[in-house]
């Protein structure tokens, strides 16, 4: 069956009150982005839902792309009938017969939003149900658990019928909550943190620290590949690769071994924060999970965070590793993350790092080194480039039951 349009239902956007128009406009922009190579598709955003006019575009292809757009609760391919009872019955029959299996069941769920239509919701349920049953003899009604749920919506511009409801990604449209810098390592946690921040409407730019020859080109490429995976949700991600070798070598020479990790993380945070300022970002996102490693105890976080007053978003802070891995698998980053290439966070790792570092000691050790000069030198040599969507990336349809 060829559908002529797709109906998109909003999630949280419906609660945004006076700001709803801005959120809907952002969502419309993001939807247009995922179908930009299909110019025949027209996007029309309304206050309570959005419609895509396909104009001959393959609806299956459009449906697949909509699954990765944050801000959508659910969507359905729909048939449109005129505001005429007989036309609605005919469209209902076509839709049910297309999906009917022998001895199957169905129900009609009608809603009359246009009050001038001659039948109310209950009358529509009865009339349409009876008409379909007469034409499909082995079909029966099951109102609790039907094989086919026929949704009928009567609006001023026509009657819309659908029998398939596809769950969307939920959340808020990317970029509706501002921009933040994502500290993207090559591990499991940071891509998941980026994904979850994007789900809350944050546009992320990735910051990756590269320390050749201690970290390889494969490690750098792995970070780029991870950025490609999560770029699926925004279309493109700006990537900033920071040369970090000289800073790490200096820390190793000048700082007591037990404090190497703390100082390293402080320098990373200082550089990320400076990039945030230059890119007009509002926050920093990282993949810290409370208590997972030495630098992620509350005491370590306090000592590390002291270098900035910028808000730090930690989407996975309260998750255990299995919860993070489950999301990583769903967004197709897990297999990349476990590739055995060392990143900056794993080289020069001391055998016994401080889990409760003292801030005054950290500041004392740093006072003997011109870190300001080293940071400015690193910033002058940052490599910045756009990362496009990975064509082979595939997101599993494992969203929560929102509808």
TrEMBL record:
Its main location: cytoplasm. The keyword Lipid biosynthesis does not apply. Belongs to the ThiI family. Keywords: ATP-binding, Cytoplasm, Nucleotide-binding, RNA-binding, Thiamine biosynthesis, Transferase, tRNA-binding. NCBIfam families: tRNA uracil 4-sulfurtransferase ThiI. It holds the Pfam family THUMP. Residues 60-165 form the THUMP domain. PROSITE patterns: THUMP. Its EC number is 2.8.1.4. Pathway: Cofactor biosynthesis; thiamine diphosphate biosynthesis. It is found in: Cytoplasm. Catalyzes the ATP-dependent transfer of a sulfur to tRNA to produce 4-thiouridine in position 8 of tRNAs, which functions as a near-UV photosensor. Also catalyzes the transfer of sulfur to the sulfur carrier protein ThiS, forming ThiS-thiocarboxylate. This is a step in the synthesis of thiazole, in the thiamine biosynthesis pathway. The sulfur is donated as persulfide by IscS. ATP binds at residues 183-184, 208-209, 265, 287, 296. It catalyses: [ThiI sulfur-carrier protein]-S-sulfanyl-L-cysteine + a uridine in tRNA + 2 reduced [2Fe-2S]-[ferredoxin] + ATP + H(+) = [ThiI sulfur-carrier protein]-L-cysteine + a 4-thiouridine in tRNA + 2 oxidized [2Fe-2S]-[ferredoxin] + AMP + diphosphate; [ThiS sulfur-carrier protein]-C-terminal Gly-Gly-AMP + S-sulfanyl-L-cysteinyl-[cysteine desulfurase] + AH2 = [ThiS sulfur-carrier protein]-C-terminal-Gly-aminoethanethioate + L-cysteinyl-[cysteine desulfurase] + A + AMP + 2 H(+). This is Probable tRNA sulfurtransferase.
